[in-house]
Amino acid sequence: MSKKNFLFTSESVSEGHPDKVSDRISDAVVDAFLAADPYSRVAVETLTTTNLIVLAGEVRGPSSVNAALMEEIARHAVKDIGYEQDGFHWKNAQVQVHVHSQSADIAQGVDSAGDKDEGAGDQGIMFGYACNETPVLMPAPIYYAHEILKSLAEARHSGAQPLLGPDSKSQVTLEYRDGKPVRATSVVVSTQHDASLSQADVREIVRPHVLDVLPEGWMCPEETFYVNPTGRFVIGGPDGDCGLTGRKIIVDTYGGAAPHGGGAFSGKDPTKVDRSAAYASRYLAKNVVAAGLADRCVIQLSYAIGVAKPLSVYVDTYGTGKVDEDKLSTVLQQLMDLSPRGIRTHLGLNKPIYARTAAYGHFGRNPDADGGFSWENLDLVDPLKRAFGV
Fold this sequence. Notes:
single chain; 390 residues; alpha+beta; four-stranded mixed sheet; 10 helices; 13 strands; 31% helix; flat
């Protein structure tokens, strides 16, 4: 039996967090390759530290996306985030590009040839999750943690709060009663700021961005509202801590409320099932919950490198399901081809749509007209209802 009354906490980090700066650069490189050739293969990691950006990885794509362009992409990403400080400046940072051609051994397992369908880009397990705690069918703690930082970032970019810096983190603890979130018991926000601001100033700048995000009456007590609890936060971003692609996978997904397969998303083209199958499993789980077939749903997919068909499709509705889980698994596989190629085709993933995913979560976002966040669409709701006579 799952617990009904408990506290649960999730954290988020902003676009200016060192790891997220790295994710953004890596995904911007993916977008550049896919814009030039939608069948490019990309696996690029980024390291960021004091006035240094290092890109490394393997690619197969048009020669127009060369080292010079990747350097330009990195600088543009850092500028867009807002870093113009002495220790990390978009214009002055050194950029090193160590990107080479994809291994032929990997390529032969992934490419289609003759009557052989395209295989998965690697082995692995991927999870997708949805629940009815929020309008976007995401767990409430991670949803509100993201929204607080998005609100702060919008105020910074708009000029409404010019003395805030790009680097920030949030953490939200919610109380659950009878399995439903009812209020925040604590909120933590750490945000980079100009040296002229006092701790009291920062606290009052942050406060409305928490109050406006949480539902009415959910604000935590004043004594458990923590803003910059370690004190002054002037030096931030990669100048304060080294950043690496793929280190914030729980922030990227469900805030710890659901399993994660272990693979990161950023820097990878959609032939990598770490990315595409995680998107597909979220898409299926979200449609199951939106169709009213369960209050909570987790889906696991597993793959072997070079093999097109998933090795397993696991569905768990945590006892909240209105239909048989085995039949649900069968119906989902009928509604969507879960081969790597089938996923990319169904969700339209061979597009330059990934830089926007690098901060504030890959899930719980609104689908974009150009195909971004296509895995958040609810176009399987009606077919699922028909399949079960709902």
